[in-house]
Amino acid sequence: MSFQEKSTWIQFVCIALVYGSYFLSIVERVQTLPVEDIGYQATMFATVGALVVLMIVAYIVVSIVSRDKDDSADERDRAINRQGEYIGGFVLGAGVLLAMGQAMLEMHQFWIANTLLAAMVLSELVSCACKIALYRWGQLSW
Length: 142
Description:
Elements: H1 3-32, H2 41-65, H3 75-104, H4 109-137
Helix pairs in contact: 1-2, 1-4, 3-4
């Protein structure tokens, strides 16, 4: 397994764990409090910080443990990255359009901010999942 593939797995797992816990905590708050009373900003920033720290630690551990010391990307890695990002971009675009619709309907900023965050997270998860699939089963021939 190349370092780029390991890196993709690290991103996928870290994003799923950290943002999964964030969205679970938000869902719990929405069920018990009015949206206007939910202080989500500090939790959102703390979640981003936790993700950064977790990914740095994971990259360090994988770099130390990795037997393959060649971490340079070849043409296949670049093509897989490009295709995965391309597909993830569609998800991000759809989420941004949804958030724009919420803004036009003058929904509470809580919903708009969390929709944008969910779009970004879902985009990254889809992108990583596509890259992992491409590493495992081959590239798309477009």
